[in-house]
Design brief:
The complex is a heterodimer of chains A (266) and B (265).
Chain A: H1 7-29, H2 43-47, H3 49-78, H4 82-97, H5 100-111, H6 116-123, H7 135-160, H8 163-171, H9 176-204, H10 209-214, H11 219-228, H12 233-257
Chain B: H1 2-27, H2 45-48, H3 54-86, H4 92-104, H5 107-120, H6 128-153, H7 156-164, H8 169-198, H9 201-206, H10 213-220, H11 227-264
Helix pairs in contact in B: 1-11, 3-6, 3-8, 3-10, 4-6, 6-8, 7-8
Classes of the chains: A mainly alpha (266), B mainly alpha (265).
Chain lengths: 266, 265
């Protein structure tokens, strides 16, 4: 039981399939086609400046919307009867288990110009929607796909807040809004933080969603093009490297606000 | 008043979450061969012909096989990892961060980096095996995260007691430790199954010509959204619903059993 032996196969595995692959990405990011070290690849950040701006803008707005939608929902869920809570859990998880690509298809069928939403709008005598192929469509796609990842960690943390703490708050004269602000919110911060990271990371690096619903490229689509289209592993490596660095920094900053080092994952 | 507002809010959220699925399921009964969003009358055709599409069936089987095998692989490796990590004192924080890396890392970076080593270092041809390995990579951390808390909570003396009572360490391990942490392993296994089945990005980069369901649908999308994608949505919806209801029933029973036990004690 005290042996560290089981760690050996695991560490070998981690080295081969997690560490070395990362090293490879960084290696390509800082070499040229002859394999010599170079800083030159930083130019690809400049070339793709607009893509970075779009990606982080879209990711930021989507994460904020997810948080605004998820927080009240998680709060309501945590106050339901155990039976209702289980029911809610299922209802929130179910769409998440549907196939990712099929979920995007469904949104496309609704939003595209000849789609279901426009058919409904014209029945009501209203003009067509112009959401398709805009940032808004991509944000809707991301919120739709990742909302459960925001709800579940916040809900999990809220169910762990002890009733007596809330009662103590009430005894001390906190009610409604103040109770939320002074007692519940501070205690739910770890859930909020893991929710934000679980939505922001896939949102910032999403691909397919932007290409299908938005018709423009985000970082994910651009990286894909460098590996699958006109192949340039050095450009692709640099973009992946920068994406990783930005995300690690944002997670570190987030964790700084969260004194508790418990990770809350679904 | 407050009640009405909160119920309205719940209704709107679930409308948002379920409207796209509902639309796809309604359109799966649409008697059309071309544009799926123009209603042409009712048919069951798209369900009846769904499994005649050999390429689709192959992709579905591929996804299921990869999901089961990768979840098994991840459960084994993740359990070993958790057992080992649990005994580490000094470098534990570092190792835990390393172990969570595949969760934190953007999927596209994981996919690309694995593709690079498969081709560049291991000179493997991309296919079934590379997809399987990649899925084990991103599933293992979820098993570790589910097993670690069980190991923490476990009373180490139980294991020693089993050995004092004459158990061989291996037997004590399988009779005492494994049953104790099994719920964690099983939870990790289930999470792995679902993440593997849902994965698109990593399979797309590491698969070559080997197609999982997501990759197959994505490739087919180049020719537009077809009615079979709607009926596939219907089939997956029913399958997932059944699985979730069975699991919920099981959970409810387990909960009732613990409640009874607590009352007796």
């Amino acid at each position: 039981m005290k042996s560290k032996k089981p760690l050996i196969p695991y560490l070998v595995w981690m080295a081969a399939f997690v560490v070395i692959p990362m090293v490879m990405v960084v290696y390509y990011a800082f070499t040229d086609s002859s394999g010599a070290f170079t800083w030159q690849n930083f130019k690809y950040i400049g070339i793709n400046r607009q893509v970075y701006i779009d990606s982080f803008q879209v990711a930021f707005v989507s994460t904020a919307i997810c948080l605004l939608l998820a927080y009240p929902l998680a709060l309501m869920m945590s106050r339901m009867s155990p039976r209702a809570q289980r029911m809610m859990n299922i209802l929130i998880m179910l769409p998440m288990w549907m196939n990712f690509i099929l979920r995007i298809c469904a949104l496309e069928v609704i939003l595209r110009p000849s789609g279901v939403l426009n058919q409904l709008l014209s029945l009501l005598g209203l003009g067509g929607n112009t959401i398709y192929r805009t940032h808004t469509a991509v944000i809707i796609g991301i919120v739709y796909n990742y909302l459960p990842f925001m709800v579940l960690p916040i809900y999990t943390v809220m169910t762990k807040i002890s009733k007596s703490v809330i009662e103590a708050g009430q005894d001390l004269g906190c009610n409604g809004w103040r109770l939320l602000q002074k007692v519940i919110f501070p205690l739910s911060v770890p859930g909020v933080i893991s929710g934000i990271t679980m939505v922001f990371v896939p949102a910032a690096s999403s691909f397919v969603i932007s290409a299908r619903l938005g018709g423009f490229n985000l970082i994910g689509d651009t990286i894909e093009a460098y590996y699958k289209g006109e192949i340039d592993m050095h450009a692709g490596g640099m973009l992946s490297f920068v994406l990783m660095v930005v995300i690690v920094i944002s997670i570190a900053v987030m964790n700084h606000f969260d004194k508790d080092d418990d990770i809350v994952l679904v | 008043m407050k009640k009405i507002v909160s119920n309205l809010y719940l209704a709107l959220i679930f409308l948002f979450l379920y409207a796209p699925i509902a639309v796809m399921i309604v359109l799966s009964f649409n008697d059309t061969t071309t544009s799926i969003s123009n209603w042409q009358g009712f048919t069951l055709r798209h369900y009846l012909t769904l499994f005649e599409n050999d390429a689709l069936v192959e992709a579905l089987v591929n996804s299921l096989v990869i999901a089961v095998l990768s979840a098994l692989g991840a459960s084994l490796l993740g359990t070993l990892g958790a057992l080992g990590l649990n005994n580490v004192k000094k470098a534990r924080g570092l190792l835990m961060n390393l172990s969570n890396l595949p969760i934190i890392n953007p999927e596209i970076v994981t996919g690309v980096s694995l593709m690079l080593i498969f081709i560049g270092i291991f000179s493997m041809e991309l296919g079934f095996f590379t997809v399987l390995l990649s899925h084990i990579v991103f599933n293992t951390p979820y098993v570790i995260l589910n097993v670690m808390p069980r190991l923490h909570r476990m009373d180490r003396n139980l294991y020693e007691a089993a050995m004092d009572l004459g158990c061989h360490p291996a037997k004590a391990f399988f009779k005492v430790v494994i049953p104790e942490i099994f719920p964690g392993i099983f939870a990790g296994f289930l999470i792995s199954l679902t993440y593997s089945f849902d994965d698109f990005i990593i399979s797309y980069f590491t698969g070559g010509n080997f197609q999982t369901l997501s990759v197959f649908i994505n490739n087919s999308l180049k020719k537009g959204i077809k009615p079979w994608m709607a009926s596939m949505t219907g089939v997956i919806f029913v399958a997932v619903l059944v699985i979730l209801i069975v699991m919920n029933f099981h959970d409810a029973k387990a909960e009732a059993a613990t409640k009874r036990k607590n009352k007796l004690a």
